[in-house]
Amino acid sequence: MRYTQLDTPTLLIDREILIENLNYKQSYADINSVALRPHTKTHKMPFVANMQIETGASGITVAKVGEAEVMAANGIKDIFIANENNQGVSPCSFQGHHKGVPRCPYRKGLR
């Protein structure tokens, strides 16, 4: 099948460019001795998040508990939820539902 035959809208990702970009960002973080924790807001895809972690990211950042649940269900264990919890879900109830997540994804002092 040619890409011109795909239904639209269709997301097409050039895997080589994606890998090149992941390696570039990780090497920049490594050179500067910082842990890379990319936010998944641009892709929202567990597959890409796992690629980021395989490349060397220390974990991922998400905006909402629901996004964290999707990522955890796909094997990601180090998840930081960046926004305050206003969804009626206890931060640590997320951890309880996903036993593979080693710690509560909220930092102490955040509500």
Q: Can you walk through the features of this model?
A:
- There is one protein chain.
- With 111 residues, the protein is mostly helical.
- Helices cover 39% and strands 5% of the residues.
- The chain has a domain at 37-111.
- It has helices spanning 15-31, 46-55, 65-73, 91-97, and strands at 60-62, 79-81.
- The chain is flat, with a radius of gyration of 16 Å.
Can you summarize this structure?
This protein has 4 helices and 2 strands. The chain has 111 residues and is mainly α. It has a two-stranded parallel sheet.
Termini separation: 50 Å
Q: How are helices and strands ordered from N to C?
A: HHEHEH
Task: Give the overall form.
Answer: flat
Number of strands: 2
- How much helicity do the residues have? 25-40%
Q: SS-based structural class?
A: mainly alpha
Ranges with pLDDT <50 over ≥5 residues? 105-111
Task: Please give the radius of gyration in angstroms.
Answer: 16 Å
**How can the largest sheet be summarized?**
2 strands, parallel
Count the DSSP helices. 4
Let me know the average pLDDT: 82
Strand residue percentage: 5-15%
Features:
mainly alpha, 2 strands, disordered C terminus, single chain, 111 residues
Ordered list of secondary-structure elements with their pairings:
Layout: H1 15-31, H2 46-55, E1 60-62, H3 65-73, E2 79-81, H4 91-97
Parallel strand pairs: 1-2
